[in-house]
Design goal:
The protein is built from 19 helices and 13 strands. It is an alpha+beta fold. The longest helix is centred in the C-terminal third of the chain and has 16 residues.
Length: about 500
């Protein structure tokens, strides 16, 4: 099909009185194509009406589409295709359209296509509403790819924005972020719209949402309340959704970061420029609109305590406590004792009651400083040959050959097996252990526990077998055996008292 540019050239040359052959050579198309354009007389090509093998079954497809609708509103198109195929087979026909053709046909005729509804436009007064949300972003710190949660707060009237990155985002981090955001704006809106997230909610959703107790205390401290939007109404906080894409495409592109501190420092510098950008919708910048909104914000409390949380910990034998998988040293005198660890935004403080024992910079997951391990006592390296191994090899070639095969079979656990064999040598005779090892080697058994089982069986057979004192044939000649008794009748004469003993007992 000829494009619009070629068709326009053909019509223009025709208007100048050029012949079809000349036009054909000039634009590089056949004469028939030139004639077709002239017959149509328009530069815009007409779309060809494309027919389908399913055109005659439009009503049937609409009926089956409504029949195969689930209670949740979803339609199983596979069942629609199968039912249409079965219907045609009953009629003696064959469905010549594939499943992809059926789905294309439904889209072309608007079957199952939901009518688009314009998003609601939420207009708020100055100081009335803010919106909060998070989004994961892939970031490179010192050449290492990590994932960080982008937390943002936007004012509903002015579109003033505050953003920070966190390695993880839980309830503690939410309180840290919002406290810093309120200080950045120097005020608080009356409500904050959020997702139905467990970070803030204890249970429920939408109008039935119940905030967690510590979140309610946080609301009371700053004089505002959270508003969880209804399910399937994420456009209710659309003002905070778009900035995440804006940050990802405008801030992260072409920038390098050393660590999380450097990341958030550059982000704050970028925010100063981003809040001054001119918004096409309002024909002004968020900073200029914020000048009208700031007087309407609720004032900040006179005292804002530092956000923290406490962790009960026991100092390990190495003199450290663990927080989020990272070790922090404590005084050696407190090894084995219980302490309280106070975690803030960027510090970890060790407390014994009200006494501060130590304070350390907080290690952040994925940051370069978190990869530096705490210096610990050097580990004892395994020698190339254990002392027990040499003593076992002194038992002879049979033991040496078994140890070589054992090393190839056990790999890194060979040292454990050698120590186990040495313990067996200390418990049993050398000859018994060597016999068990030879038997295990013959059968390809390299489990030391199996060797001990063989050793015990050999010892039981040799040392603890009771002699009978007669052959089986002699046993069959016994009179008791002939009478049907397996063992001789016991002699009870020693236990039957005589007449004299009975008289003694009577007295």
């Amino acid at each position: 099909m000829l494009d619009r540019e070629i068709r326009t050239a053909i019509l223009a040359l025709t208007a100048k009185g050029r012949k079809i052959r000349e036009i054909s050579r000039a634009v590089g198309v056949s004469r028939n194509s030139v004639k077709a354009v002239l017959e149509q007389g328009e530069a815009q090509p007409k779309a060809r009406e494309r027919g389908s093998r399913l055109d005659g079954y439009l009503d049937d497809i609409r009926r089956l589409h409504a029949l195969c609708r689930h209670k949740d509103g979803q339609v199983n198109m596979v069942r629609v295709w199968e039912k249409l195929r079965d219907q045609l087979e009953v009629e003696g026909k064959k469905l010549e359209a594939s499943y992809p053709t059926l789905t294309w046909f439904c889209r072309q005729h608007g079957i199952g296509v939901e009518e688009k509804v314009a998003a609601r436009r939420i207009v708020t007064e100055p100081g009335e509403e803010s919106q909060h949300d998070t989004s994961p972003h892939a970031i490179e710190l010192s050449g290492k790819k990590v994932t960080r949660q982008c937390a943002s707060l936007v004012l509903g009237y002015s579109r003033m924005l505050y953003v920070q990155y966190y390695p993880r985002f839980d309830r503690f981090q939410m309180k840290v972020f919002l406290t810093e955001a309120f200080q950045y704006f120097e005020g608080v809106c009356r409500r904050c719209v959020i997702d139905n997230t467990s970070v803030a909610l204890a249970c429920g959703a939408g109008k039935n949402a119940q905030m967690a107790a510590e979140v309610e205390a946080f609301e009371t401290r700053f004089g505002f309340h959270f508003l969880a939007h209804e399910l399937w109404h994420s456009d209710r906080k659309g003002k905070v959704e778009r900035p995440h894409h804006f940050i990802e495409r405008n801030f992260l592109i072409g920038r390098s970061f050393i660590d999380d501190a450097d990341l958030n420092r550059q982000l704050l510098e970028w925010l100063e420029k981003a809040n001054r950008r001119r918004l096409r919708e309002f024909k002004t910048s968020p900073l200029e609109l914020f000048a009208a909104e700031k007087p309407k914000l609720r004032p900040m409390p006179l005292f804002i305590p530092e956000v923290y949380r406490l962790w009960p910990r026991t100092v390990d034998p190495y003199g450290c406590v663990s927080v989020h998988g990272y070790k922090y040293p404590a005084p050696a005198a407190y090894i084995g004792k219980d302490l309280l660890v106070r975690e803030t935004k960027d510090r970890v403080i060790l407390l014994d009651g009200h006494q501060e024992l130590a304070a350390h910079p907080k290690k952040i997951e994925g940051s370069p400083q978190a990869a530096i391990p705490h210096p610990a006592a050097p580990r004892r390296q395994k020698s190339a040959q254990l002392a027990e191994e040499g003593k076992l090899k002194a038992m002879g070639e049979a033991m040496t050959a078994y140890l070589a095969a054992l090393k190839a079979a056990r790999g890194p656990r060979y040292f454990w097996s050698v120590r186990k064999l040495w313990r067996l040598l200390c418990q049993y005779r050398d000859a018994d252990l060597l016999a068990a090892v030879i038997r295990a080697h013959e059968h390809g058994m390299f489990d030391v526990n199996r060797i001990e089982t063989i050793l015990l069986q050999n010892v039981a057979q040799s040392d603890y077998q009771l002699p009978l004192g007669f052959e089986a044939a002699d046993f069959e000649d016994l009179p008791e055996y002939r009478r049907g008794a397996v063992t001789p009748e016991p002699d009870l004469s020693e236990y039957i008292p005589g007449p004299e003993e009975e008289n003694k007992n009577d007295h």
